[in-house]
Design a protein that fits this description.
Strand content: under 5%
Distance between the termini: 61 Å
Mean pLDDT: 88
CATH architecture of the largest domain: Orthogonal Bundle
Number of helices: 17
Shape: elongated
Oligomer: single chain
GO molecular function: DNA binding; transposase activity
Low-confidence stretches: none
Pfam families: DEDD_Tnp_IS110 (PF01548), Transposase_20 (PF02371)
Structural class: mainly alpha
Number of domains: 3
Protein name: Transposase
Helix content: 55-70%
CATH topology of the largest domain: Helix Hairpins
Length: about 325
């Protein structure tokens, strides 16, 4: 009906509720009055419309987060099960989620079952579940640690039943994670400037999908600082007179967007030569703390992303190099 819709931050409503009557009282009528007063004074934000592709990425990445939490939970429970029943298994397989460890848990999880087996039988069992399986050396080591195991020997049937359910949950989470990541990778090419952003060495499809899903169309931001403010990565300072408070990150924005910007920047610092040089220059020449340098590079990444999206230009490595290298 041609009525413009805006949003008011609930946190600001809570902060402004005492401006009306100088009390901490709260009611529906008072909330409505405070919200109307904030809109009248311009303390609101416009609703940013996004296309269907960005909305799909946001939903898919939210789904991925739920699956990853379930996967991590199942892995933690598998580790707990191993601690109780067969703690020596880590002497053979350092990672419980390795293919050899998972295959061992499926075939012969308890040390009691391994006591009456031969190394050849163990290797034959591994061949049924793995294309490239460990050899006889691993099988001998597994038998030796199983004979000296200090794991529990009570209620083994119940523990085996519990393990079957844990492995089912683990398999389901792995399958769902593969499916949702495949759907994310199929959706990314539909965004015009996504391919240009993926040309930056160190930017993965998942991290880019997380940023685009939460931020929406980057070409709609006027500057990289607007993206930082949207994520809650802009700076906040509390000072009065001669007293200078600590400058902190406001964190008034999308937490998932902050996380993916941070992870993308960490990947660039490890894999991208330009960002690696910038980080080294910040730490060694400018004597910055490492985390402060990372936060500064997040701002650099935000400006690069918004610039590429707005101008539809390819990534230029020479523009990112530190001034010391350009002068040389």
């Amino acid at each position: 009906q041609d009525i413009e819709v805006v949003t008011v931050n609930p946190h600001l409503v809570k902060r402004n509720k005492e401006n009306r009557d100088n009390t901490q009282s709260k009611s529906d009528k008072k909330d409505a009055l405070v919200i109307a007063d904030m809109v009248k004074n311009g303390y609101y934000a416009f609703v940013r419309d996004t296309s269907e592709s960005f909305e799909k990425l946001r939903v898919l990445m939210s789904n991925r987060d739920v699956i990853v939490k379930r996967l991590v939970s199942s892995i933690n429970q598998l580790n707990r099960w191993v601690d109780i029943v067969f703690p020596e298994l880590r002497q053979v397989f350092k990672d419980i989620t390795a293919k050899g460890a998972i295959a061992t848990l499926r075939l012969f999880p308890s040390p009691m079952e391994l006591g009456s087996m031969k190394p050849e039988e163990i290797v034959a069992g591994w061949k049924l579940l793995m294309k490239r399986q460990p050899g006889l050396k691993k099988a001998y080591l597994l038998l030796n640690v199983a004979r000296k195991s200090v794991g529990t020997r009570q209620a083994l049937e119940a523990y085996k039943f519990h393990l079957e359910q844990l492995l089912e949950e683990y398999d389901l989470a792995i399958q769902q994670l593969e499916r949702v990541e495949l759907a994310i990778k199929d959706e990314l090419p539909k965004i015009p400037f996504a391919n240009k952003l993926l040309m930056i060495k160190g930017i993965s499809e998942i991290s880019l999908a997380g940023i685009l899903g939460e931020a929406g169309d980057l070409s709609g931001f006027s500057h990289g600082n607007s993206l930082l403010r949207h994520a809650g990565l802009h700076l906040a300072e509390a000072s009065s007179g001669k007293w200078k408070g600590q400058i902190i990150i406001s964190k008034r924005g999308r937490s998932r967007l902050r996380r993916f910007l941070y992870l993308a920047t960490m990947s660039l610092v490890m894999n991208n030569p330009e960002f690696k040089a910038l980080h080294s220059n910040n730490v060694k020449v400018k004597k910055m703390k490492k985390m402060k340098s990372i936060m500064k590079l997040i701002g650099k990444l935000a400006r690069i992303f918004v610039g590429i999206a707005r101008k539809n230009e390819a990534y230029c490595a020479k523009k990112v190099q530190p001034l010391t290298e350009l002068a040389a």
